[in-house]
Structure of Probable nicotinate-nucleotide adenylyltransferase:
Amino acid sequence: MIRTGIFGGSFNPIHNGHISLARQLCEKAGLDEVWLMVSPQNPLKAQADLLDDQIRMEMARLAVEGETGIIASDYEMHLPKPSYTWNTLEALKRDYPDREFVLMIGGDNWQLFDKWYRADDIRNQYQIIVYPRRGCEGGIDGLDLIDISSTEIRECIQAGKPINHLVPKAVAEYIKEHELYA
């Protein structure tokens, strides 16, 4: 069985923290690969400043170019909406029977996990790896987290501040070229 971590998010935009975390979790959790699952819609988040699905997907693809074991995935974009994690995991299990899927979520989402659709079923049928997030307790130990957020990046762009140190070079160039988040 190929152990595949599912690291879902809006990636609005994807940043160096996401990539670093995927690398580290792949190693520390004994995963063969991590799929960055670009989510079309999070039932628990407002959609006001969410860029188009294909734009976020393209930035994710650019961010993982040259990365070993980290894959940008649009799988969830082809499922019925809203995209509930339970439905995604069950569809993945059906479509990829040679894989064992492991859910990777931040401590912030873990605190809300009981509100998730079919939370008990997810807990009972899938391994869950919780990684630490700012202001949240718990999570896998020994991770070197880059403390940045997509919200902070969008705010930097709106304030005219540089983001080159926060996102992969190709993503920074894409954002600038397409005048995103301005």
About this structure: The chain has a mean pLDDT of 92.
